[in-house]
Amino acid sequence: MARKHALLSASSAERWLNCTPSARLTEGIKDKSSPYAAEGTLAHELGELILKKELKQITTRKFNIELKKIEEHEMYYKGMIDDVEDYTNYVIETYHGALNKTKDAFIALEERLDFSMYVPEGFGTGDCIIIADGEMEIIDLKFGKGVEISPINNSQLKLYALGAYEKYGFIYGIENITMTIAQVRLNNISSWTITSDMLTEWAEEELKPKANIAYKGKGETVPGDWCTFCKVRHTCKVRAEMMLGTYKKLSKDPKVLDVEEIAEILGQAPDIQKWAKEMQDYALEQALGGTKYPGWKLVEGRSNRKIEDQDGLAQILTREGYKEDDIYKPKALEGITNLERLIGKKKFGELGASYIVKPPGKPTLVTEDDKRPELDSVEDEFDFN
Ligand code: SF4
Questions:
Q1: Does residue 126's CB lie within 6 angstroms of at least one atom of ligand 1?
Q2: Lowest mean pLDDT among 35-39, 165-169, 279-283
Q3: Which range (112-121, 190-199, 310-319, 350-359) has the least confidence?
Q4: Which residue of 106, 120, 156, 363 could cross-link 131, Cys pair, CB 3.0 to 4.6 Å?
Q5: Angstrom distance (rounded) from CA 70 to CA 42
Q6: Of the spans 25-34, 299-308, 368-377, which averages the highest pLDDT?
Q7: Which is it for the CA torsion 285, 290, 291, 294, positive or negative?
């Protein structure tokens, strides 16, 4: 089921808390449906279904009927159950742990959470809430596998927690709130705990004033990491100025960059590359829709020849005496990711473990906070070819 979104939604809170005018600037602009979003929605449905069966909230018959519908969805792949089970197993283990503490332990799935006492018209949907003995845990399933998401000070989870606290805090006497991200396809299940007092203090002192400014579309436009999913990111002037302004700041020596300046450019480079590619894609889409950019024109791109009738050509060539081994490519196995999707992560792990190696990666420059150990930079000690 598609989830409704509020103007000041929990999922976009990081953006509108940092750049308050962005909520109104993006209002009414349609979200482009992406295959990743559709896959994530399906994974949530699957997770909820598995949990409902485990918790005996639905019969096996109902489970099988609903599972069949999910399996018929175009975004479904065989390994999806394995991926989602990392989340459902965590939920079940946590719930059993809560039941061990008190038989009154409570669990809610896909709960609508209202945080409009702090954020005008604010609501969202929490994937799972578990409460026992003055402790509440909010568990959020994330299906993305791009960037690892941390639960620490995570605005989206804090808003869900506020909604859940408002609903259950008084009834269950909740003192501590744990927020857990289950980013299953990155093996990232991590938690962060704060007291309910700290959460409500943040909500009163920081969230509420900013949400009111954001609701009015006021405040300063501030670019940052939160621009990634902003619907006006292509046309946002402040963001463009930030990207293009990098070089203007480098003015120590007018001719040559020093190591500090190069380090600064390295930090900005991925964002600039991504932004430039987004601008090219956006402008192309607009041009296809009729927009004319001064000095630019639409042309047909370069293309390569391709064989339209492979069987027909192969027949002619073999009739002419060419061997099949020479005219056909050798058979090759699918890549590991595709095989995992086909067979399932766990089963593939069992079957494929002794056939797979992980060669050393090529040297890469990363920032110091990266978890990987530092390489000795004497080049000829390594053979990366
Ligand atoms: S692109 Fe970034 S800076 Fe511009 S409005 Fe959106 S969030 Fe704010």
A1: no
A2: 35-39
A3: 350-359
A4: 106
A5: 7
A6: 299-308
A7: positive
The Cα–Cα gap between 52 and 60 comes to 10
Q: What is the CA radius of gyration of the chain?
A: 26
> Residue 214: CB within 6 Å of ligand 1?
no
What is the per-residue pLDDT across 59-99, written as a single tens digit (0 to 9) for each?
999 999 999 999 999 999 988 999 999 999 999 999 999 99
Mutate to test the pocket of ligand 1, among 19, 210, 222, 282 (most ligand atoms within 8 A of CB): 19
Atom of ligand 1 nearest to the CA of 224: 2
Residue 249 has pLDDT above 70, yes or no: no
Ligand 1 pocket member 231 (CB < 6 A): no
| Binding site membership of 15 for ligand 1 (Cβ less than 6 Å) | yes
Return the higher-pLDDT residue of 254 and 142.
142
Sign of the alpha-carbon dihedral angle for 237, 238, 241, 246 = negative
The residue whose CA is least distant from atom 2 of ligand 1 is: 227
Handedness of CA 219, 224, 229, 230 (dihedral sign): positive
Q: Is the pLDDT of residue 246 over 70?
A: no
Distance 233 CA to ligand 1 centre (A): 6
What confidence category does residue 248 fall into, taking pLDDT thresholds of 50, 70 and 90? low
The CA distance from 209 to 173, in Å, is: 27
Amino acid, single-letter form, for residue 268? Q
135-142 and 176-183 as β-strands: parallel, antiparallel, unpaired?
parallel
Look up tokens 């332990």; give the residue: 105
The pLDDT mean for the chain works out to: 90
Atom of ligand 1 lying closest to residue 236 CA: 4
- As a whole number of angstroms, the distance between CA 356 and CA 174 comes to 48
Establish whether residue 236 lines the binding site of ligand 1, counting it when its CB lies within 6 angstroms of any ligand atom.
yes
Question: Whose Cα sits closest to atom 7 in ligand 1?
Answer: 227
C-alpha neighbours within 13 Å on the C-beta side of residue 361: 7
